Amino acid sequence: MYKVVAIGTNKVRAFLAMEEKQMTFKTYREAEDFLIKTNEAGILPNNYSLTIEKTIKEL
Questions:
Q1: What is the 3-state secondary structure (H, E, C) of the chain?
Q2: pTM to 2 decimal places
Q3: How far is residue 27's CA from residue 56's CA, in Å, rounded to a whole number?
């Protein structure tokens, strides 16, 4: 599983969520597609960039 994280120039990390649930993606490709569409939409402030991180499997 993967998640898209917004990281500010001040090193603040913001996890993306919908309906108060952190968004996760089953494949890297799904996360990448979301990241690309979000960047193209230009909805984030200029001081944030998006990155994809692999989630840690819960026990």
A1: CEEEEEEECCCCEEECEECCEECCECCHHHHHHHHHHHHHHCCCCCCEEEEEEECCCCC
A2: 0.81
A3: 14
Q: Which residues pair with 6 in a beta bridge?
A: 14, 50
**What is the per-residue pLDDT across 19-49, written as a single tens digit (0 to 9) for each?**
999 999 999 999 999 999 999 998 888 899 9
Distance from C-alpha of 44 to C-alpha of 38, rounded to nearest angstrom? 8
Question: Domain residues of the chain, as ranges?
Answer: 2-54
Could you tell me if 44 and 50 are in contact, meaning their C-beta atoms sit under 8 angstroms apart?
yes
- Kind of pairing, strands 2-8 and 13-15? antiparallel
Task: Answer whether 2's CB lies under 8 Å from 53's CB.
Answer: yes
